[in-house]
Amino acid sequence: xxxxxxxxxxxxxxxRIKKADILFWGTPGYINILNEKKYKLINPNKANVIKVxxxxxxxxxxxxxxxxxxxxxxxxxxxxxxxxxxxxxxxFLDNYKSFYLxxxxxxxxxxxxxxxxxxNDENTFKLNQSYxxxxxxxxxxxxxxxxxxxxxxxxxxxxxxxxxxxxxxxKIKSKKKYDILYISTFRKVDxxxxxxxxxxxxxxxxxxxxxxxxxxxxxxxxxKKKLSILCTNKINLKSDEKDFFKKIxxxxxxxxxxxxxxxxxxxxxxxxxxxxxxxxIDSTLLYESFGRGNKTIFFDVRPFxxxxxxxxxxxxxKKFPGSGPFWISINKFNNIExxxxxxxxxxxxxxxx
Length: 353
Known about the structure:
Blueprint lengths: L1 H7 L2 E3 L8 E4 L22 E3 L5 E3 H9 L5 H12 L3 E4 L5 H5 L7 E5 L15 H5 L4 E4 L2 H11 L2 E4 L3 H4 L10 E6 L18 H21 L4 E4 L7 H12 L5 E4 L7 H8 L1 E6 L3 H8 L4 E4 L6 H6 L15 E2 L4 H13 L2 H5 L1
Parallel strand pairs: 1-4, 2-3, 2-5, 5-6, 6-7, 7-8, 9-10, 9-12, 10-11, 12-13, 13-14
Helix pairs in contact: 2-3, 8-9, 8-13
């Protein structure tokens, strides 16, 4: 019933499915990168696309699934692959396990591009023999430590390329515009929404972020710096997110919101490049900011239990001490003050070393 309801709210396509060498599985907004001239071997306009968020469905494929009494989205995709006969199936959605299970022939290749940093707090890297049976052939990932995890999980040929998105935005030297930039990881959650690892709730995560932002704001006022909050790119969260920070920081005195431009993935990178120092907990953009050479501090202050301490921490899966030159796991003002002072005042040459 749920699946029928989802389909009824989607666009149904009756057009003929073309044969195309390339099939894109999922279409995040930044897929338009591939329209740039440097990717001349890939033409998204000539490729087939499967929408994974219920935007549309092909009537022909739905009918084939119905006649075979197959009702999963994996079944839908497999039937589409049979009709479209792609040579290459590409996705940016490495956090969608469904892609690992899609069937392909010996002549077809599956390619996956990591789009965000990963942890293992939801058993993302739990081994499943089916992943290797329908193997992803090539995977492009962020770093050498995560490369090992993906090789073990998928048996794929994995290339360490850094962030595909960040690498597509050149860093241009410009005047610094923001004193202290905080990258929000706000999510709207139910107070009783448990994580998969014990009794820690996502509401507990928000409380830790609330305490951290208060401490950073206290620092900014003490040292006459302006705090800028970079909001999430999720449009449906913006209103709740702004209310969340307004309750913490009060009236806009010595702090501001920065909005990302909808549909413009490049804007976030241009913003972090203009900050004197970038702060946050564990967002992908925080790691990308560090990779771009910006002064970046990681506050690894999420609440932990025994399981989360192993599966979700700064630089996971690489293990570092709880505190270091530009990261800290203590959510107390004195410690936060010390690490901020140290890195704000450090010379750029020393920071790069």
